[in-house]
Amino acid sequence: MAKRQRKSKLFEPALINEALKHSFIKLNPRIMFRNPVMFTVEVCTAVMLVVCLWIAAGEKSQGRLPYNLIVFGILFITLLFANFAEAIAEARGKSQADSLRKTREETPAKKIFPIGQIQANEIKIVNSSELRKGDIFLCEAGDIIPIDGEIIQGIATIDESAITGESAPVIREAGGDKSSVTGGTKVLSDQIKVRVTAEPGESFLDKMIALVEGASRQKTPNEIALTILLAGFTLIFIIVCVTLKFFGEYANTPITIAAFISLFVCLIPTTIGGLLSAIGIAGMDRALRANVITKSGKAVETAGDVDTLLLDKTGTITIGNRKATNFYPAIGISKNDFVRDCALSSFADETPEGKSILELSGLDKNSFNTSGAKFIDFTAETRCSGIDLDNKIRIRKGAYDAIKNIVDKARNEFPLEMSERVKTISLNGGTPLVVIENEKVKGVIELQDIIKPSIHERFERLRKMGIKTVMVTGDNPLTAKFIATKAGVDDFIAEAKPEDKMIYIKKEQQKGKLVAMMGDGTNDAPALAQADVGVAMNSGTAAAKEAGNMVDLDNDPTKLIEVVEIGKQLLMTRGTLTTFSIANDVAKYFAIVPALFITSMPALQALNIMHLHSPESAILSAIIFNAIIIPLLIPLALKGVTYKPIGASALLRRNLLIYGLGGIIVPFIGIKLLDMIVQIWF
User: pTM of the full predicted structure?
Assistant: First the structure.
């Protein structure tokens, strides 16, 4: 199955041109005000422009005009660099949205009118924009599905590559958890009737495009908290710079406005202030590149803080598509009769398990006379399925406890050897299905599932991060325990009903923990809504997609683990760049403060540990470094810090060592090199 890769170069020419244009647009004070750190830099830039005009008018106390113009230019470039970081992140998101937007083009729809002009259920061709929620339309082979909806009649093979990038077609049908269809996908075979589930402009794609482009992006709680912290730092340094004015007067050292502003801009955390929005946008962008569309940046961020992960066994921990491997008839029951009952009980069972039972039996469906028979579908409540033949023979197959309840209610005996067989199969990691005829035990079918080879290592990585993994399965406790132990999960929910997920999530949340889960059915919707991170499959029902705060376009049950890693990477990137930004203020302090007072207080020469050439060259070197470090860190902000599954304390030590110590050393080297260049002119 080929999959379109959602990859692009970090700095494509088209994206750079778009970002450069928006870098100037974002200079609007109303836009800059949302970022307190960069807004103060913009105010300082405006002040420097006024100072330059003042000097040009004849003022002599503020230094030379060329020097002040250079300070003004560097501050202006600092603003552009910060705006460029956010703009390039937004441009990358918009480029990803283009592929989604292409599927939203106007398409004809075969609308069904219950009361037509000529007849009932009359079909007319209308534009997709004319469809409203609740309308019904027909789609046949070759048609493009005009808008989001749920299949109410029929089954069809659908090409979803325009949305998911997956070239292999999928089957969607009425009445199950795979009934949802998305506008822009193509019907390859058969015919379906679909009920519209969204108004024009409010479809899944419309909402996702707006979010991806950043139009609906809101700051996350952590981002808001960090913004407040950075604003606090800014206020503190305003006070520091104001008090330096009085120190200068006391020391008979005149300090120019350019020097004050340079010190202030270098001390406030402009690096993280300029990159903060880009980091958040890039986090959502990375999720999209993994074919996960998030409804908010908060969802990605919360995924990084998750404590408990609820994972379905089938498809996530095991390969899925359990297969029947053995038939075990009860004592006194011939194997042929038992195999026949197994096949009959699976006639209406369209699950992989049901099909594998028919396959193992070797019997042909056409060899049975099932006219007048009533097929009993499997449900999560009854946990069994079967057939009622017209000769009053009732055959059921299902989970041990469910079938045992039926047998007990009929006051029949459950053979001891069959109970032992169920236990043996369960202890070996298999799934036993008990078959009964007219409430009497006929035998047991053994199903076997294969644990994914790499899943144990992935759970070990999650454990190192302090995340608890919980397996959710309909299997009996013995089978569940065997698979849980073999796979390496921390806990399991056996014989799980839909409400069991909700109960477990609430229990974990009452302990103050954040919970993530994945689901696709309408019965998963309450739990998806309750979970802190709810990932709905795109193939799932509309209710599930509305309840979750993320949608996985690939319908991959293991994607939840990847979502957590993306969230962790977002938080790590923000933390490391914040550490680096605050740490590199140390070098700027040693560059500028001695430069301000060294002429009147020669003793401060001891603080000039970088041996910078002159006060002017020191100040210029510091603010130049302060500006150019922002674009140099843009690739790291967009790509994210390399993710490593280690504990919080180990992660803190690593960040302090690499980005804390690095944040101190790099500016010393950079400012010294810049001073060697600047001293040619100053």
Answer: 0.69
